Amino acid sequence: MDWSGGFTGLIVFLVLPSNIIGVWWVVGSPVTFDRNSICRRSKKIKGNPSQREICRKEPEIAEAVIGGSELGMNECQYQLRFSKWNCSTYQNSVGRVLKRADTREETALVNALTAAGATYSLTQACSMGDLNQCGCAAESHGNTDGGKETTWEWGGCGDDIDYGYMKSREFVDLQHRKRSDIRTLITLHNNEAGRAIIKFNMFRECKCHGLSGSCALQTCWKKMPSFRKVGTLLKQRFNGAAKVMGGNTGEAIIPEDSTVKSPTVDDLVYSTESHDFCRPNRKLGSLGTQGRHCNGTSALVGGCDILCCGRGATTYEIQRSEPCRCRFHWCCDVECDTCNRTQVIHVCNGYDYGQRKS
Ligand SMILES: *[C@@H]1O[C@H](CO)[C@@H](O)[C@H](O)[C@H]1NC(C)=O
Ligand SMILES: *[C@@H]1O[C@H](CO)[C@@H](O)[C@H](O)[C@H]1NC(C)=O
Ligand SMILES: *[C@@H]1O[C@H](CO)[C@@H](O)[C@H](O)[C@H]1NC(C)=O
Fold first, then answer.
1. Which residue among 317, 318, 338 has the greatest number of ligand 3 atoms within 8 angstroms of its CB, and so is best to mutate?
2. Per its UniProt record, what InterPro entries does this chain match (predicted)?
3. What is the pLDDT of residues 283-329, one digit of tens each?
4. CA-CA distance, 35 to 162, in Å (whole number)?
5. Neighbour order of strands in the sheet with 293-294
6. CATH number at 304-357
7. How does residue 36 score in pLDDT terms, banded at 50, 70 and 90?
8. pLDDT at residue number 7
9. Average pLDDT over residues 111-138
C-alpha cells in the first residue's frame, strides 16, 4: 500500500490547477479565507506568479485582500438571502458552484463580489494607515469647479482607490492562463466588473469649516461607496447578467444573442444557464429549498410560490417571549414583563411532503 500516498499526490497535482481557475480563494473544499493556506497553495502550484510574490514580500497586503473576499462572500449571502441558491458555504455549496467548468450567473456574482471586496478592504486599509505601501489618496490641488468661485478644496484623507484597484487586481486575477479560454475571459471580466463598480461610484465627502455653522470653506475628499451599496449594485447586474460566448478571434467575449449590445465593463456575464436549485444536488452545489423560510404574501423572489418551487409551504405558529411594558425605577432598574407573541412562519415543503403525509 506504499504507492497510495504518491498516487493521491499525483491526482491532487493533476486536478487542482484546472479547478482553481478564477477561484483563487477556494482551496479544495471547503471554502477558505485563511491567508496561510491560500499563500501556501500559490507557492506549490504554478498559479499566479504575482500572488506568490505578494504572499512572500507583502503578507499584510495578502491579508487585506483575502479578508476582503470574505467581506464579499458575506455580502453575497445577504444579497441572495431570499434566493433559491443563497451563497451558503454549507456542504461547500459555493465551492462546488465555482469549480464547475462553465460559468453561471451565480459564479459571476461571487467572483465580482469577492474581487470588489478585495479592492474595498485593501483601499480601506490604506486609508486607515494600516499599510506601509499606501495611504490617503493625493488629490490634485485646487478643485475641479474650474473658474467658478470656489467654496471647497481637496484635503482630508481620500480613499486611494487606484492603489487598491491595482494591487487587488494583481493578486486576484490569474495571469498564467492564455486569455483565449472563454472561462478565463468571463472570470476576468466579472472580477473587473466588481472592481469597476467601486471605482465608478466614488463620491465626494466634505466637511465644513468657518465660523460656527457658516460653512464658508469646505474640505473634501474622495470616498468609496458603502460595501452594502456595492453589493446592491452588483445584485442589479446579476439580475441583468448577459449570456456570452467566445468571439471568432477567441480573444473576446460577445453576446450570444447578436441583437444584444456588448456587455460594458461593469456588466456581469456568464456562459451557461443556471439550474433552478430547487432540488438538492451535491454535485451541482444545490442544497435544495426544502426547509427554507419564505414570505407567505409575496409573489416575488422570496415568496413561497417561487422559493418553494411549487411544492407549497407549511405554516407554523411559533411563540416568542420577549420583554415588554418596561418600566424605569429610580435609580437604576428597568423592570419588564414577559410577553408572548405569536409569529407565523412559512417553511418550504420537501419533494416527499405529499407521500410522508399519507
Ligand atoms: C441558505 O439555504 C440553506 C439551505 O437551502 C439554509 O439551511 C440556510 O439557512 C440558508 N441561509 C440563509 C442565510 O438563509
Ligand atoms: C413579505 O412580502 C411583503 C410584500 O413584498 C412585504 O411587505 C413584507 O414585509 C414581507 N414580510 C417579511 C416577513 O419579510
Ligand atoms: C407566556 O408563555 C409561558 C409559557 O409558554 C407562560 O408560562 C406565561 O404565562 C405566558 N405569559 C403570558 C403573559 O401569557
1. 338
2. Wnt, Wnt6, Wnt_C, Wnt_CS
3. 889 999 999 999 999 999 999 999 999 999 999 999 999 999 999 98
4. 23
5. 293-294, 333-348, 313-329
6. 3.30.2460.20
7. confident
8. 44
9. 95
- Beta-sheet pairing, 217-223 with 242-246: unpaired
Q: Which amino acid is residue 65, in one-letter code?
A: V
Mutate which of 86, 97, 349 for ligand 1 pocket (most atoms within 8 A of beta carbon): 86
Angle between helices 182-200 and 161-172 (to 10 degrees): 160
Q: Please spell the DSSP secondary structure of 77-110, one letter per residue.
A: HHHTTTSSS----GGGHHHHHHTSSS--HHHHHH
Q: pLDDT tens for residues 139-184?
A: 765 565 555 566 788 888 999 999 999 999 998 886 555 556 788 8
Which residue owns the Cα nearest ligand 1 atom 4? 287
Q: What is the pLDDT of residue 44?
A: 64
From the centroid of its chain, how far is CA 153? 34
Strands 286-287 and 333-348: unpaired
pTM of the model: 0.84
Angle, alpha carbons 232-236-238 (nearest 5°): 110
How many whole angstroms separate alpha carbon 111 and alpha carbon 106? 9
Ligand 3 pocket check: which of 319, 321, 342 to mutate, most ligand atoms within 8 Å of Cβ?
321
Exposure on the CB side of residue 157, measured as CA atoms within 13 A: 10
Tell me the domain boundaries of the chain.
Answer: 19-131+162-190+226-288, 304-357
- The pLDDT value recorded for residue 149 is 60
Q: Which ligand is located closest to the Cα atom of residue 336?
A: 3
**CA–centroid distance, residue 321 to ligand 3 (Å):** 8
Index of the ligand 1 atom closest to the CA of residue 289: 5
